[in-house]
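Notes for week 9. Today we move from apo structures to complexes. The key idea is that a small molecule is not decoration. When we ask for a structure prediction with flavin-adenine dinucleotide present, the ligand SMILES becomes part of the input, just like the chain. The input block below holds both the sequence and the ligand string. Read it once before you look at the output, and try to guess where the molecule might sit.
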Amino acid sequence: MFAEIDPRTAALKDRLTAFMAAHVYPNEKALLDESRQDGRWRHTSLLRELQAKAREQGLWNLFYNHGPEGQGLSNYQYTHLCEVLGRSLAAPEIFNCNAPDVGNMEILSIYGTDAQKERWLTPLLNGDIRSCFAMTEPAVASSDATNIETRIERDGDHYVVTGRKWWTTGAMAEACKVAIVMGKNDPDAPRHQQQSMILVPMDTPGVRVERPLSVYGFQHPPLGHAEVVFDGARVPAENMLLGEGRGFEIAQGRLGPGRIHHCMRFIGLAERAIEAMCARALSRTAFGSRLSDMGGVRQVIGQCRTELEAARLMTLKAAWAMDAHGNKAAKDEIAMAKIYVPTITGQIIDRAIQVHGGGGLSEDFFLAMAFAETRFLRIGDGPDEVHREALARVELKRAQSRTEETVQ
Ligand SMILES: Cc1cc2nc3c(=O)[nH]c(=O)nc-3n(C[C@H](O)[C@H](O)[C@H](O)COP(=O)(O)OP(=O)(O)OC[C@H]3O[C@@H](n4cnc5c(N)ncnc54)[C@H](O)[C@@H]3O)c2cc1C
């Protein structure tokens, strides 16, 4: 199942690794500092410069496998590359491989009309604009998407969108020009046919970005996470994606690959955390011993390595299953990785913070921000409990049919 990576992917990986060393790690602090100055929601000139370099070097849209603009890599191949770029929180945007744009580009590629693709997908693939995905709402438990209350109502040649969203990643960015909004077009339809998805340009009258939200104090500029109001926003009927009542169908298509990409990146982030933990342990002495000679620290290092290996194998297996059997058939592997990888990588990063002492909690190291990132994914893209519940349903169904077979 786990093939050696092919020569083309290996060569891309080497180039990506070299690019990270030459241009990403050395600029992480400058990118953070620049983003903190006025205009924090703007793509800074340094970020634009690095994006242009990545593009020049063919390290652009690595995730994309739909057409000539993409690299045509399988999920399994991309896993090896995504792990490398996942080592830095600054990197995905530099390589145009960032959430939520990746998921939105997937939606537009698979479900968009030619006109929708031309207007929104092309500039997204070029990195000229950014997008957001507005599903979650403050007023309802949004882990159950059937609760979503935003209304998308037909009015002649238009749809009118009314509702309040939050945690809309990317909506703070000046470059964010379009939202994919999920909402109810028919509250009387069967439960999973009530919701639709529609493209709403951010400059539509009635769209208001109200405030940024932060994760443990981190606001993640330049994309940010926003509370957004759609106050009777009127858009042409051709902005509907796929068709009325087909929002769930699209959501399933979008979330599978998106979930696994997060896992792939977290493997890289946790790998870097182990490296940082070991380097720190080797360089500090307390009570007459190097930290790296202390049994407690050594146990932690061994545990981290073991757990990261398990997390990596789960991610690779899910990617392989998606390639071999399709995203739908691989849903259990994706769910298991989505539960396990953020939890384990979060624990690894937390242990690395501990070995760093006070420094680990500061912004002098990448660890505090990395911890916040992994913690978010135990809730984002579906909380752990929802995925466990889905797995339990399959498991119990299997047990039920075993029981029935025995009775016969
Ligand atoms: C940093 C960040 C970025 C995000 N980006 C986006 C985005 O771009 N677009 C977007 O639309 N949303 C986004 N989200 C929102 C995210 O997807 C939701 O927060 C998530 O789906 C949970 O919904 P909720 O917050 O309404 O929690 P609720 O639905 O209120 O759930 C609360 C808790 O209830 C428990 N629970 C729920 N169901 C079950 C169950 N079946 N069994 C047991 N326990 C259960 C879980 O512990 C869960 O965490 C983001 C969130 C964060 C933190």
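The pocket of flavin-adenine dinucleotide is lined by residues 100, 133-136, 141-143, 167-169, 215, 225, 376, 379-383, 385-386, 389 (CB under 6 Å).
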